[in-house]
Fold DNA invertase Pin-like site-specific DNA recombinase.
Amino acid sequence: MLVGYMRVSSDSDRQSTDLQRDALLSAGVDARHLFEDHASGAKDDRPGLTKALDFVQAGDVLIVWKLDRLGRSLSHLLTIIDSLKDRQVAFRSLTEGMDTTKPSGELLFHVFGALAQYERALVQERVMAGLAAARRRGRVGGRPKAITGEKLDAIIAALDGGMSKAAVCRNFGVKRTTLIETLARIDWSSPSSSRDEPA
């Protein structure tokens, strides 16, 4: 069975699936087996796509007008096609001429897979280079510290003086989780168990 999926970016009247619908019908898809979404490709929640993927069975072919109608990114596209392949469902894109039922389509799929892996490696390399550059400038990656400087010194002094964590949170206006994470980071340990009373 041929199953079609269509997507346009919004519910605007200017955005219509007519072009995609005509192409899919011309490719042999039955109008009863068409699924569509009116949503950005970047959105995770696409009910039409979910229904189409749930509907297809082994031996079926999922068809789209163009590759960018299906996946949020190259890696997302390949994940979908890979999952279809595991379920013995073929995939076809009309514009790009990709058809996994043919050897050329299989080859193209593997080329896309290699490109996605290359893209992930480049992203990881850029992230690592950025973190290294930040460290050289004295900055450390991650969220900024919530409690620093004189405020942290005052909190440590209060805790060392016997104030409970609950009282510190109230007096210094900090969340208990923030206080606990900060104390763990500086490896502060309570000299008295009485300080661990609930906030």
About this structure: The chain has seven helices and five strands.
